[in-house]
Fold this sequence. Notes:
CATH architecture: 2-Layer Sandwich
Number of domains: 1
Largest sheet: 6 strands, mixed
Strand order of the largest sheet: 7-6-1-3-2-8
Radius of gyration: 17 Å
Structural class: alpha+beta
CATH class: Alpha Beta
CATH topology: Peptide Methionine Sulfoxide Reductase, Chain A
Number of strands: 8
Distance between the termini: 25 Å
CATH superfamily: Peptide methionine sulphoxide reductase MsrA
Shape: globular
Amino acid sequence: MNLYVQLLSVVILGNCLACGTVESSNPAVPVQERASTESLPASKDRQIAVFAGGCFWGVEAVFESIKGVSDVKSGYSGGTAKTANYDEVSDGTTAHAEAVQITFDPAVVSYEQLLEVFFKVAHDPTELNRQGPDTGPQYRSAIFFTNDEQKRLTQNYIEKLGAAKTYPKPIVTQVVALEKFYDAEAYHQDYLPQNLDSPYIIAHDLPKLENLKKQFPALYVKK
């Protein structure tokens, strides 16, 4: 199937190809049997950032392609429920958002640079409770800061974007403290490189990687 036909199939199917509707032979693993990484210790050469910007497949792939990032995990954060798995998050019963946890070396890539990529490449911060064909609060834009410095830098950056009128609509990104991050199911991890022929990936996520290469060539690393 060529690219034109694949893109047409996306238009026809619409939300049927929304993030996470892929069927998997891997059943949802109870959260207590998966890692909860809300309190990973920071160090001089290792810090954690947690962002939510719609379907985690493409957001994960963007940050995995950045110099100085050593690990990116797809998962869930921001809800009131003490459990998180795909079915419950998708039903809206947990208030969690699809998110990514980024482990990075601040000597190579700064938190401010990660913010810039998040706002300019990884998603549209003006869309409320949706990204592209994916709708619902689980696809909301949010930053879960891990310390006061991240909170300050995030708020300052959003104010800077607003003052510059970078977007035609207001930024709706939530800025809230990280409480817990629950790893998503195994079949969601590294989803993009394993599904390059997926119409959803072609239409919605590969363009993000192209924009990353164009806008941030010094940060881009092919993985």
